[in-house]
Amino acid sequence: MSGDPRARIVLALMGALLVLTPVGSAGSTPSACQGFDETRARISRREFRDVEVELEQYLREEPGNAEAWELLGLARHGRWDFEGAATAYRKALDLGRENAELLRGWVETKGRSSGNVSLFFNAGSLRKDLERALELEPGHVETRAFLAAFYYMVPRILGGDKKKADRLIAELVEMSPPDGYHLLGARAREEKEPMTVAVGHWEKALELDPRHILTLTDLGRYRLNQEEYEQALSLFEQAVAAAPDDPLILTSYGRALRRSGRRDDGADQYRRALEIDPFWATARMALAEYHERVDDSEAAVREYTNLAINNPAYRTREIRKRIQRLTR
Description:
- The chain is mainly α and about 325 residues long.
- The chain is built from 18 helices and no strands.
């Protein structure tokens, strides 16, 4: 697993394919008899921190409640505590709870919190969990794309299978043509085919669905890398129009604005994303870097500190170094 750690790359890609907005519900700490409808509602409103505290307290008294463990995983997942989320999801699975959303969450957070050696030994079981998620929800587009990406990006020794990938993609083209053509483009890029092939697939996806978010953003990034700024920004603006409350899309649009020379406008998009989801770490990181670039050290330290406190995945040596450098 030295050199090019392919398993880690694909699992990072899977994180991009999956939606980091948990579906759920909640209010005060639930009792076993009242269920968790209000808890799920609060998770949907991104009240991750409060829900996490309440569920941890509840589980100290009711450690055998598998649904509560799943919801704790969702709350931790929402604030980018991937290691903590993986632990909670695994507990729910071990207690016998099984559904496609839980399995997808487990695979993603395990992949994003594990080292390369751990992923090497866990790749087979993670593949099986993805396959089981697809059995439980065969019509779920993201799961199918997720598993296809695993098959075509991971070496055979870790469970990769290009023939299975081809079959899943072909089925996806039949089931949901825009998603299928988007994935064909992603695969062409990964296989290092001429970018004209990938772009052709993406343009076909947009012919079928002009509001297809993943295609708009992938094609937008490609145009941006080609320094075709007008076309890139048009694609990102269409993506924002299609999903105005998606923090991932707003953050991508902000980065496109920055790359095209409009960094203040880009920062406004990061702020919009954080108004929707204060735990959206990529927007917080981008905003901190913006403040650093414009020599506003106080604001940069504030954002980096907020990032480290609220998003455990960003409690890294690099973030500490940035804060120390700015506070000298």
